[in-house]
Every structure is written in structure tokens, then in C-alpha cells.
Fold each of these.
Amino acid sequence: AKAVDALAAGDPAALALLDEAAAHMAMTAGVLAGGIDTAAKLDGDPADDASTLRANLTALLGAHVYDAGIAVFTAYTAGADSTAFAAAADALDANSMALAKAVGSLAGAKEEQAFLGLWRTHIVFFVDYALAGAAGDDAKQAKALADLDGYGASFGTYLETLTGGALPQQAVADDLAGHLQTLAAAI
């Protein structure tokens, strides 16, 4: 209700409140998965570490797309110097920090910070793309797309190193290309 009230009032805090409300759905998913698992007598444990990690990453990455979409749309429509964009960027960065914290919980504080810095980079490229589009600057938009493409390779290299080769650079870059292309198309 707080998020709906904030939206109705035009309060920039609405985005953070929506994220908070959405985060509670992970708990609901856990309850549902446990009940369905018990009723269906499924193999495996929906609450084991691997299942929990997958569920949490899925929730955070899904929220990332929506938060990023709202932030770049707000930059495009209200401008990167607006209060509305600052609120949207704060909500997106809170999601980025939560993703980094998930990485850090497995790989340590140093990697949490490394991931966060690298992750934030691609967000800047998306904002650059949106602002260039709003200005009708095709050259800057093309540069932002090239930067995003290069980001896929560098992020892939980072994850390959972090995982000791379990996630090959090219596989990460290829997978990330879909996210980059679909979000750019949405912008």
C-alpha cells in the first residue's frame, strides 16, 4: 500500500518502495515451492543452498531489468539531472549493491566490490544510450552500443576468472548479448 500511495502522490520514493514490496515475493516463492515440493513428492530440496542462490539471483536480475528500464526511461524523458532520475538511479543502484552482495557472499568482499564496479559500468552505458537517443545523436548512441558490446566481453572475462573457468568468457558474453540487445531495443 505504501508503494501505491507513493506512486499516486508522485513521490520519488515509490520506486524504492516497489522494490521492497517485490523483494517480499521471494519469501512467498519459498513458501509455495516448499508446499508444492512436499505435495508432489519431488526430488531435491527447494530450500537448499543451490536452489536458494538460483532463486535469489533470478529475483535480483529480473528486478534489475525493470529498475534499469525505469531509470533509463526516466533519464530519457525527465533528464539525467532530474529528481525523478536520481530516485530511479538510487533504486537501480540498490539492486546493483544487492547483486554484488550475493557475489560477495560466495567470493568475498574484494570480489563484491569488483563486481559492483563492473556492473555499474554497463548501467552508465545504457543511460548514455538513452540520453543520446533523446538528443537524436546517432553517433553517441552507436558508441554506447559499442561500449555495451565491449562490456559483455570484459564482464565475461571477469566471471571466467572469478569462477576459475567454470563460466567461459564467450558463453557469458553471448548470454549477456541478449540482455543488452533487448534492453537497448526497449529503450
Amino acid sequence: PSQTVPGTLLRLGTRGGGRALGMVFDSCVMTASGSPAPVVLVDVANAENISIRGGLLDSNSAAEVVAVRVGKDSRRIVLDNVRIGGNVGAGGFRAIDDESGRLVVR
């Protein structure tokens, strides 16, 4: 899908204490395009055993875009063969913001 409003395209887990467990996303394509405000494509707020395999996270946006943000309480998060970047726009692009220090990129 194309993200045209500020916010988060996909959030796994919640900041309020809920936890996402055991999710796999295969060959995802997520693009931030034309958004005038900051966008996070994938926000792993509070989760474990999350695997994102294949696909593309990219940006062509007027605002800051973060491809993957992993919260400090998350663990066992894996990006496997995910292409990040693509058509990077002028608004700034951060591929990975990992507060947990536990993200594995293959």
C-alpha cells in the first residue's frame, strides 16, 4: 500500500503493554509517497519473534521516513532479505532505528 498520511503503516505490538508474538510477514512492499509529515513504515513497538522476509521498504516523500523502528522492549526481530531504500525522497530517510539493540538483519 501507499502511505499518504502521517503516522505508522504497520505497527506490531503496542506501547501500552500489549505484546505481539510470533508473526511472519513475507514479501511485503511498503512505500511512503507524498506524505507531508513523518511516517514510520514498520513500528515494532513491543514484540517478539517477528520475522519480515523479502520485499521492499522505500520512500519518495516530502517528510522524514523511518523504514523500521524497533522499540527497546522488543526482542528476536529479524529482517531477512528485505531491501530498504529504493527511491529515497528529499525529506530524509532512516533505514533502521533500533532502540532494542536486538534486531537481526540478514
